[in-house]
């Protein structure tokens, strides 16, 4: 006689629900917390994130995982080049890194800001994660990414590495 050992079925795991939307003033504190926890960003005051969520919601995006803030991108359209979306900060909460959320946020943001033809961002040479993120984004969009010097160390009142301007175009 053959006997079988029955083991309970593993519980079904559901994929987390990821949603994207413009931030609101109520999200300003979460933006500040995520930026602070990232430990790699130049963190602005909490007040600045509140203003950003109020005044630049159309050009920024918040990612939520199962209804909880998980990451953000802040951006604005350049006054002298209104079809240029300048990406200021990209941050993903520690517990949600490695899932491609940052890349998805960039794509969602470009779709949200449908009049943007060019994306710009600045990156220091030692920030290999951001360089890889924006390079992947440009590759996936089938577009060109260029780099040039923008702000040298001498432009900053405190010690700061030079910021290179990365320009991705055309977005569409």
UniProtKB/TrEMBL annotation:
Pathway as given in its UniProt record: Amine and polyamine biosynthesis; ectoine biosynthesis; L-ectoine from L-aspartate 4-semialdehyde: step 2/3
Enzyme nomenclature, EC number: 2.3.1.178
PROSITE patterns: GNAT
SUPFAM superfamilies linked: Acyl-CoA N-acyltransferases (Nat)
Keyword Membrane annotated: no
The organism's place on the tree of life at top rank: Bacteria
InterPro entries named in the record: Acyl_CoA_acyltransferase (IPR016181), Ectoine_EctA (IPR012772), GNAT_dom (IPR000182)
Domain N-acetyltransferase positions: 18-172
Keyword Transferase: yes
UniProtKB keywords: Acyltransferase, Transferase
An annotated Gene Ontology molecular function: diaminobutyrate acetyltransferase activity
A Pfam family per the record: Acetyltransf_1
Family the entry assigns: Belongs to the acetyltransferase family. EctA subfamily.
Protein name: L-2,4-diaminobutyric acid acetyltransferase
Gene this chain is encoded by: ectA
């Amino acid at each position: 006689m053959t006997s079988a050992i029955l083991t309970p079925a593993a519980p079904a795991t559901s994929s987390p629900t990821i949603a994207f939307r413009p931030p609101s003033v109520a999200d300003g504190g979460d933006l500040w917390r995520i930026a602070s926890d990232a430990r790699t960003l130049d963190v602005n005051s909490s007040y600045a994130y509140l203003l950003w969520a109020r005044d630049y919601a159309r050009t920024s995006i918040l990612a939520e995982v199962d209804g909880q803030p998980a990451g953000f991108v802040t951006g604005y359209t350049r006054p002298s080049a209104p079809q240029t979306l300048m990406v200021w900060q990209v941050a993903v909460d520690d517990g949600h890194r490695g899932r491609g959320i940052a890349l998805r946020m960039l794509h969602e943001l470009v779709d949200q800001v449908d009049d943007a033809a060019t994306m710009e961002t600045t990156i220091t040479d030692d920030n290999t994660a951001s360089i890889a993120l924006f390079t992947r984004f440009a590759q996936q969009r089938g577009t060109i990414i260029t780099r040039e010097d923008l702000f040298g160390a001498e432009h900053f009142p405190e010690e700061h590495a030079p910021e290179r301007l990365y320009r991705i175009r055309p977005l569409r």
